[in-house]
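Loading example: each entry is read as two labelled lines plus one structure line.
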Amino acid sequence: MALPAKKRDDAAALLAAHPAPVGESRWATEAREQAAAWFLETGAPAARDEYWRFTNPATLISAEPPKGEAQPAEEPAIWSDVERIRIVFVDGVFRPDLSDDLAEENLTIEPLSDALSVDIHWARDVFGLLEGRGQAPVPRPLASLNTAVARQGMVIRATGKVSRPVAMRYLHEEDDCDAVIRHVIRVDEGASFTLLENGPAAARFNKCMEVEVADGAEFHHVRSQGREHERRAVTHIFARVGANALFKTFTMTANGRLTRNECVVEMTGDNGSAHIAGCCLGDGSFLHDDTVFITHDAEHCESRQVFKKVLRNGATGVFQGKILVKPGAQKTDGYQISQGLLLDDNSQFLAKPELEIYADDVACSHGSTVGAVDPTALFYLTSRGVPKDAAQDMLVLAFVDEAVQEIADERLADDIRARLQAWMARRRQG
Amino acid sequence: MNALDNVKEGVDQDTVDAVRNVGARYKYGWNSDIETDYAPKGLNEDIVRLISAKKEEPEWMLEWRLQAYRRWLTMDEPEWAMVHYPKIDFQDQFYYAQPRSMTERPKSLDEVDPELLRTYEKLGIPLKEQMILAGVEGAEEAAAEGRKVAVDAVFDSVSVGTTFKKELAEAGVIFCSISEALREHPELVRKYLGSVVPQSDNFYATLNSAVFSDGSFVYVPEGVRCPMELSTYFRINAENTGQFERTLIIADKGSYVSYLEGCTAPMRDTNQLHAAVVEIVALEDAEVKYSTVQNWYPGDEEGKGGIYNFVTKRADCRGDRSKVMWTQVETGSAVTWKYPSCILRGDDSQGEFYSIAIANNMQQADTGTKMIHLGKNTRSRIVSKGISAGKAQNTYRGLVSMHPKAANSRNYTQCDSLLIGDQCGAHTVPYIECRNNSSRVEHEATTSKVDDDQLFYCRQRGMDEEEAVALVVNGFCKEVLQALPMEFAVEAQKLVAISLEGSVG
């Protein structure tokens, strides 16, 4: 079918609004040109697209970013007690003055613009490549836009066990700003690395991250998407997971008008493991969309998707998850659970949990439920003297905890739990 | 319990027989040598007019068809289903074929071409009035009194006979071909036709609206419990013919009807098109049970030939406390594209969907259901069992939607897939939309292969591998088979075994 003119025009307008950087190395320029061409070919996402049926992308693709009021940054920042290497971005721009010294054993960190200007660089085998592999069978146009135009971000390589996590913090100062950030990460064979992210970043935020997890490597990712009512964000993670490797990502979202988090994972080595989890607490004019696509292309791999959404006052939670088991990916163990908890009658939960399986010796299952707080459990707690509000909070926290438990590091998980609790308490007062 | 034992025994015997006759894979694959009148090949307004004229339809019906045809010209074929087939040339089809002996409408079954009657005999359909299906009834119910089933048989494009008319008329039930209904009960047809599946619904439904040739019409008046099961048998005989039947079932307040549908077609190298529409209207307190055993010719092992089965089936639970139950056993067709759905409009209405879809060799099935909850306290239940073998692809695609006003509604969905062999695929594409918080939606899906331990157990007790697989698969489908009317359950169990022939070893 011919591409509708609007999709093409929107794509062209977005490319015009974000000029691609010049003077980079040849391989980087080529990758960017390829992405731009693909973006024009597939067009900007539209509400009629199957992959956007639950989430209207209009405000993500307008040439001008929508209005967004910057709010004071959360202090203290989450994970303040955890020893970490801090990297700060303000309105999507790297600020070395606010960041820690980037030198660390077994780790190299360099700004994106530096890495892409070098003629011979390892990032050449990751940048634009993993994103490109993730464009089929479903195009992810906003990720190609990111590849084509992103100027900011970090290129990180872990060559051994990294003792401290890297914590990226995205601050938002100028009201109506539009940020595009790209990270390129490689975790070498046998290495392990943890990445933390938090903060609202901008009025509109397009972030894309490519992660190559080599054989036997471990990558942990925990993020808390900042508190700001007007924030609109689209993020992509493209990961390739090697043999005996572990890939784990968890996202907490407690605010924002529109958030679309896509995670595309390809399991290419035997015995690999991928866990993608997330929880969101939505209140009012809030739409949160998790779109996950896991491809099993090797034997004995395991994948988990655990998503919990608590919604009230007209909030919308969306989950689109897919497990694709390619021919020959025998002994795959795939599991997917998506649950919505609706605290009132105005909120909605929309889900499309898919399985596409071409191998017979597999165990794949998915479950999806949606409903209200269990009145029996609520009654049990109140009959034991717990005030009703507190009882409800307790049940909500218990509901989301299955997702939080996916975080391997307890300190990080506890901080997430504390934030969730604080959010619940604040909601109760306001 | 005895009844089940009976059924089980029957199946085992038939499975054994089936395995023995490996040569005759598709037992309905013969072709009857019946003189057939075709309308000219291709589709245009004149063909639509011709079909309408042949049926002596009222003017408004012709207008309705033409409107659909014009709409169809502006539509594109749907591409979202997980099925792949060469593009269909809609001009290379006959849109109307009828056995020549039917040109002059027979006054009674005696006047029907004996070759045609033999065809039905071969199909095992009790077309003659006195024929009563000896049901595999429960032993308690003393099988002496058989079960009556009224049959409407549709051969290529026309209905060739409806049995038990008199008895049904006494109860006030109207059961006839839709062409007859258009002549004799135009007010009912006009009121309900297209009210559940509108003309513009989708590409194939629109095509059907323009060219549908025949089908069954059922009206069960207020408070009547239809005295027997109604049944339609569809058969495509003529080559290059598309069959476009249209079924309309109206269950008035407080009525009950159970309707069975079976289909077969001869083996041919070319693909044949089948695009049917079924509309069900259930008014207050009415209950409709619709069961299908779809056994169109699936094509040969290399995927040559077979029926393209693009069907739109929808029930509208218009009245409060109405209930519709879809049960389907899908074993045939090269490509299946079918989503029997329920619109639960009335408060406290119920929709149920039980499905077994078996795809073997090169078959492709994309099937499922939609449960649209609009009324309060509505309930739906979906049990879908998909079985893939050979190089087949089997997809469950479904929608459960709870509208903001559908307070206190419930849905439970279970879809399980079973894979036999490493060349096939099983897919699940459910859509879940919940827009109020007093409702509960639960969805579960699993995909697995035939359990080796179970197979080993059966083999150890002397079954051969094929028998063992058939037994395990029948167990896997049990929940759905139990929802079928008894005669159908037996047929379906046999079909399960036959469809899987050649899938192991």
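Chain B touches chain A through 38 residues (CB under 8 Å).
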